[in-house]
Amino acid sequence: MLQRLFKVLRFIDVYLAEFKPSVTVMEHYIAEPIEYLNVKVVVRTPPSLIVIREYVVQENVVAYGYYARIGDHEEWWNNRPHHPEVETHPHHIHVKGGVKPLHSPDLEAFLKYIKKRLLK
């Protein structure tokens, strides 16, 4: 059942290793069939904070929140159903005080995107 946590840590290593991140598992628990994880990633250069939260049921991510603060830029990807007006509901991005559609709602896409922002 720890498979998802290991997969998340592997994704962080694959996409962010060159930035030498400090990774902390803030919270992790398993209550069959649910696995919850909250992982904090700190990158020193450029100064950045990434938070990954997922609820997983039988290896399927059913709820997530992926947050990034890179310098003064902040955004939050999640699937909370509080923005039904967004075409990709419930998947959406909070950025610059607004809400945008999220067409690739998965952790790997998020980390690829974050890597590009870190390289700017």
What percentage of the residues does DSSP assign to strands (E)? over 45%
User: What's the number of helices?
Assistant: 2
Termini gap: 37 Å
The SS-based structural class is alpha+beta
Task: Kindly state the number of beta strands.
Answer: 7
Order of helices and strands: HEEEEEEEH
What does this structure look like?
This protein is of the alpha+beta class and 120 residues long. Helix content is 22%, strand content 46%. A seven-stranded antiparallel beta sheet has the order 1-2-3-4-5-6-7, with helices on one face. Strand 2 (34-43) and strand 3 (48-57) form a beta hairpin. The longest helix has 14 residues, at 3-16. The protein is globular and about 35 Å long. The mean pLDDT is 95.
List the helices and strands and how they pair.
Elements: H1 3-16, E1 22-31, E2 34-43, E3 48-57, E4 60-70, E5 73-78, E6 92-95, E7 98-101, H2 107-119
Antiparallel strand pairs: 1-2, 2-3, 3-4, 4-5, 5-6, 6-7
Helix pairs in contact: 1-2
Search tags:
120 residues, 7-stranded antiparallel sheet, 2 helices, 46% strand
Summarize the entry for a quick read.
The chain is of the alpha+beta class. 22% of the residues lie in helices and 46% in strands.
